[in-house]
Write a structure and sequence with these properties.
The protein is an alpha/beta fold. It has helices at about 50-55, 95-105, 110-130, 140-155, 180-195, 215-225, 240-250, 255-260, 280-290, 295-305, 310-315, 335-355, 360-365, 370-385, 425-435, 460-470, 475-490, 500-510, 520-530, 535-540, 550-560, and strands spanning about 10-20, 25-35, 40-45, 60, 65-70, 75-80, 130-135, 160-165, 200-205, 230-235, 270-275, 290-295, 320, 405, 440-445, 450-455. The structure holds guanine and zinc ion.
């Protein structure tokens, strides 16, 4: 990680950001000096010469008239192993969608070569679209989620990452026992912390209530306390999910009450969706400092309701914005911002329709967001949700330099819109946010390092250059490099075994925590069982093996030996480096 250490950078030009909700602040003709990844100074342009001397700058880069900086986007909800099918498969409600597409797609990341390839593509796509920070769900499995963390480290994004936990109501080939889940979640936390990469933080990730026993949730909450990690899950997302939880846990009034009981609502918790949260729930989340990740696009497809951002903010809830790839069909936070605006206008239209009249009242306007509010959500709101306000979200001395160099001057068919000489620079910002895309992102910076310039991902290019140099050198470094390679190879070894017959296990897995633990009713089990694909293995086989299936084959072979895996604590020595 030392190969791309940031030196001192300095830029002179326009910087836009949104320190206050709904207000754009323009820092015009401003010099920003970046040292060791942090903003060391923000000063007026006429201080340039003094700064050159003070910081010993060799260059102050002047932005073109058509260029400006904005803070990097923060995506608070992404399912990394769903990237492969992004843009497809939104034809069924959430609970069916999980069974029909999602679990299978995520399981296929057990092929670690495929995971490596797909995660690299995902990260390049997100960085190219200006997402400098993301909160990721990995998959159920430890090893591919480790591959994700390694890829994030390599390509230079900032991230909060969790291994997904699910120990009930899941397909038999995509489930873990409670003890395995807790063990792997802890192994993942330790692996990630061990990297000592300041950009990457581990996260506790109970998928959502229907697939997590109260015992698992409580165990995960205690891991989060022990390691001080973030927590992420889904809350009150849609009718199917809410009805399922009511059936499983009738003694709890809401998802919020259940998460509270499990100890999962903390100031570092981000709960996705929340379209069906009551005011009481929202107040409760606010009192815990827990954030909601607003995912407008996936809410349109799966959410059954429009989340009221301004209402939640007014009750003191932290709100960030998420793409929710692949429930949201776009990986771009520009799309998420536009969808947040559209979502808010749907709320307005709904109120007008409900009134039965043609008079727009002030009450109908309260939900409306404009592009300025959306930009705030995508930057400051995300930083607050992820407990990163001290580091990112705006331009301020002492904060880290996560920034997008936007160029609106592409023109003609080279870019997505045109600019004209009589426009203000703020109108150009507005055009970019409404009409722009990755072509307008000339450079993307994370922690003061340019991670993408044009079509080149700088960290990857640097690493490749470094490898070439090292390959040329014989001797001293080789043993260390070989050891590292071996370490990586071992981390990528397939998981030992998986529990068989998850649905049979359901009764055994019935929660043992008395206050939270009614037996799942047989009706709900039947309902969930009915949605599990009868022959998941066959269908996956039919998908064909365009991306090496050997890892999967090995895992399947291993499954046959997984007798009562859920009751046996696997030997800890299977986990290297922890
Ligand atoms: N609820 C549980 N899992 C998921 C998921 O993968 N995506 C969405 N949108 N909601 C979920
Ligand atoms: Zn989600």
């Amino acid at each position: 990680t030392t190969m791309t250490t940031a030196g001192t950078l300095a830029f002179r030009g326009t910087f836009f950001h949104t320190p206050t909700y709904g207000q754009v602040e323009a820092l015009r003709d401003t010099v920003v000096v970046v040292q060791h990844g942090r903003i060391a100074r923000i000063a007026e342009g006429n201080k340039e010469i003094a700064l050159v001397h003070e910081f010993g700058l060799s260059e102050v880069r002047r932005l073109k008239d058509t260029q400006f900086f904005i803070p990097g986007f923060i995506d608070t909800h992404v399912h990394a192993p769903q990237y492969k099918f992004t843009g497809t498969g939104t034809d069924v409600p959430l609970m069916e969608w999980l069974k029909k597409y999602t679990f299978k797609a995520e399981g296929s990341y057990r092929d670690l070569d495929a995971a490596h390839h797909r995660y690299s593509l995902l990260l390049k796509r997100f960085l190219a679209n200006g997402t400098t920070t993301a909160m990721y769900y990995g998959s159920l499995h430890l090893e591919p989620t480790v591959v994700l963390v390694d890829a994030i480290e390599r390509l230079g994004q900032r991230a909060v990452v969790g291994k997904v936990n699910m120990d009930r109501h899941s397909p038999s080939d995509y489930i873990e026992s409670t003890s395995e889940g807790l063990r792997d979640a802890e192994a993942f936390i330790r692996y990630t912390l061990h990297k000592k990469c300041s950009r990457i933080q581990p996260c506790i990730t109970p998928r959502f209530i229907p697939t997590c026993t109260p015992e698992l949730m409580k165990g995960l909450a205690s891991l989060a306390r022990q390691y001080g990690t973030h927590i992420q899950s889904h809350i009150s997302e849609c009718c199917g999910e809410v009805n399922c939880v009511r059936e499983l846990h009738p003694e709890f009034a809401s998802d919020t009450a259940l998460f509270e009981q499990a100890g999962l609502l903390t100031p570092r918790t981000v709960m996705a969706h929340g379209t069906l949260l009551s005011d009481q729930d929202l107040r409760h989340l606010a009192s815990r400092g827990t954030a909601v990740s607003h995912c407008p696009l996936s809410n349109f497809f799966f959410g059954d309701a429009c989340f009221r951002v301004n209402h939640a903010l007014s009750l003191g809830v932290k709100v960030g914005l998420g793409t929710d790839v692949a429930g949201g069909i776009s990986p771009s936070m520009l799309t998420a911002q536009r969808m947040a605006v559209v979502n808010s206008r749907c709320l307005r239209a709904h109120k007008l329709a409900q009134s039965g009249g043609t008079t727009v009242t002030a009450d109908m306007e309260v939900d409306v967001l404009g592009w300025r509010e959306a930009l705030w959500l995508a930057t400051v709101g995300g930083a607050q949700a992820l407990d990163l306000s001290h580091a990112v979200g705006t331009f301020a001395e002492g904060k880290e330099f996560d920034a997008l160099l936007v160029d609106t001057g592409l023109g003609g068919t080279c870019g997505p819109f045109d600019v004209f000489p009589d426009e203000s620079d703020e109108q150009r910002l507005e055009k970019f946010l409404q009409l722009g895309d990755d072509r307008n992102l000339a450079e993307v910076f994370v922690q003061g390092v340019c991670v993408k310039r044009g079509h080149v991902f700088e960290r990857e290019a640097a690493a490749e250059g470094q490898r070439a140099v090292e390959a040329g050198k014989q001797g001293a470094g080789d043993a260390e490099a070989a050891a590292e390679e071996e370490e990586e190879r071992r981390m990528r070894a397939p998981t030992p075994t998986e529990p068989e017959a998850a649905l049979v296990d359901l009764k055994a897995a019935t929660p043992t925590v008395p206050s939270i633990a009614p037996a799942a009713s047989s009706a709900s089990i039947a309902q969930l069982a009915a949605t599990v694909p009868a022959a998941a293995g066959e269908e996956e086989g039919a998908e064909g093996g365009e991306e090496g299936q050997e890892g999967l084959q090995e895992l399947r072979a291993g499954e046959a030996e997984a007798v009562n895996a859920s009751e046996v604590e696997p030997p800890v020595t299977k986990r290297p480096r922890l």
